[in-house]
């Protein structure tokens, strides 16, 4: 999760507050806090389970989708892959796919 993304999330949250959309702001803050907590938890590990990576990616994509006012749809398919993946290796690819 890049610093630029975190800045955009906070700016979006500020916008929701300014527009007095309390319910949306609270939902957005909830999504962000869960995602940030997972990010910090994972930062202590070199590898995480594929299941945890999918959970993190789902939360990240939901934030992006919310921030961009549902401008895209997505689906994550998994065949219950066991194993581990390097921490933070997949998220930058997903971020680039959404932005570009």
Describe this protein's structure.
With 100 residues, the protein is mostly helical. The protein has one domain. The protein has four helices and two strands. The chain has a two-stranded antiparallel sheet with strand order 1-2. Helix 1 runs antiparallel to helix 2, helix 2 runs antiparallel to helix 3 and helix 3 runs parallel beside helix 4.
Short account of what is shown:
This protein is mainly alpha-helical. Helix content is 64%, strand content 6%.
Count of separate structural domains: 1
Q: Give the SSE order as H and E letters.
A: HHEHEH
How many runs of DSSP E, i.e. beta strands? 2
Computed over alpha carbons, the radius of gyration is: 14 Å
Uncertain runs: none
How does the major sheet shape up? 2 strands, antiparallel
Secondary structure category:
mainly alpha
Helix-residue proportion: 55-70%
- Note the gap between the termini: 16 Å
Shape: globular
Spatially, the strands of the biggest sheet line up as: 1-2
**What's the mean pLDDT score?**
82
Task: Please tally the helical runs, counting DSSP H or I stretches of 4 or more residues.
Answer: 4
Topology:
Blueprint: H1 3-18, H2 22-42, E1 47-49, H3 50-67, E2 84-86, H4 91-99
Antiparallel strand pairs: 1-2
Give descriptors for this structure.
single chain, 2 strands, 4 helices, 100 residues, two-stranded antiparallel sheet, 64% helix
């Amino acid at each position: 999760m890049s610093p630029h993304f975190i800045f955009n999330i906070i700016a979006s949250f500020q916008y929701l507050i300014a527009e007095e959309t309390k319910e949306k702001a609270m939902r957005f803050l909830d999504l962000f806090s869960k995602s940030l907590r997972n990010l910090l938890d994972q930062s202590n590990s070199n590898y995480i389970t594929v299941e945890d990576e999918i959970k993190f990616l789902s939360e990240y994509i939901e934030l992006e989708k919310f921030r961009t006012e549902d401008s895209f749809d997505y689906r994550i398919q998994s065949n219950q892959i066991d194993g581990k993946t390097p921490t933070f290796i997949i998220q930058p690819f997903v971020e680039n796919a959404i932005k570009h």
